[in-house]
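User: Predict the complex.
Assistant: Input components as received:
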Amino acid sequence: MFPCFRLGPFLLQLPGLALLAGVWVGSSLAEKEAARLKVNSADVYNLIFYGLVAGIVGARLAYAARYLSAYLANPLGLFALTPATLHPDAGLVIGIAVAVLFGWRRKLPLRPTLDALAPGLAAFMMALGLAHLSSGDAFGASARLPWSIYLWDDYRHPSQIYETLFALTIFAVTWKQPLGSGDGLNFVLVVALSAAARVFLEAFRGDSVIWIGGFRAAQVVGLLVLGVCWWLLRRWAQPLIPKEVAS
Amino acid sequence: MVVALALGAVWTFLSRVPPAATTGGAPPPSAREGFSAPEFTLDLLGGGQVTLSNLRGKVVMVNLWASWCPPCRAEMPAIENVYRAYKDKGFEVLAVNTTYQDGEAEAAAFAQNYGLTFPIPLDRTGAVSNRYLLRALPSTFFVGPDGVIRSVVIGGPMSEAVIQSKVEELLKETP
């Protein structure tokens, strides 16, 4: 775990840098894939950019809205470079909503656009694993194994390394063996494999949110996502609608 | 895919966490969110001692700082303002001076210059900084009334709004 290092007067947060690198690599891959699938690559890049900016701004505004009096008294606090004052769930929802709205307004074809995003998403998941490794987040359960890491005052499963390796495998599978060409199946495959990985790996985590009955929340959500992916794979495995091919 | 779903459901069932694992008492001490704040007893600037666990029931902000650190200097007025506003509601600040890499005289002059009224424990040996995995100054740990770390801010300066939002959230839990 190595969350930050000082470079002169600057304190560099390594998890943030890993995520930034993931966004950069992911968006570059998405642009290339968009060009291959004959989707407007500039539009795909802008979709990612606007979604990302809206997500970050939305996460900060949602956090500030919870503590309105504090931020009304000190509005400059909105610009603080403190990840601890973000509302990640709200940011995710707002980011996706803005990206969807942008894609709808630019009339981007749904399934080819999703396929264009697939390798970038898989690459970003690798960066997310590295960010977790750097910050010590998403840590593993206590375990005395030859490959355990010492983290947070205990020997633990190196869950962040598991996560990164699975993400690397998913990237390799979806990058080298795309299911189709713009039919949306590659994107569904990335999401399905990521959900399956989460269902499997969550059992080794030490920070799971536990629901009634001792069920781990991430596993239950992962199963639901897998179910939706199964439904989509069955539905989208049909030949493309001519209108979508034309666009 | 159906097989994956079925295997996933079985795995989810098998990897349930026994209720005892989540209700078995306070989390172990470590310097991160969700863990108990590592215990310490330190001498205070100006005399006396403070023990973290004696503040159980209060919202505590443990801030590690040094007088030569520019962001530490920048955020101190904000910390002082929030302390004055909330200290009667159950908020306490322990501004741990990293004395092993600073100096008591410098810390005292700093406190006087900024008119700081909260307790300033002195980490003369670096043991507390080490226990809190100090990697950058300032580092701040927001500890709930139950002694569990709820938020960590590495680096600074923190704005008054940031500190206030964290404190307000935790004060809701005080009796």
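Chain B touches chain A through 42 residues (CB under 8 Å).
Let me know if you want any component modeled separately.
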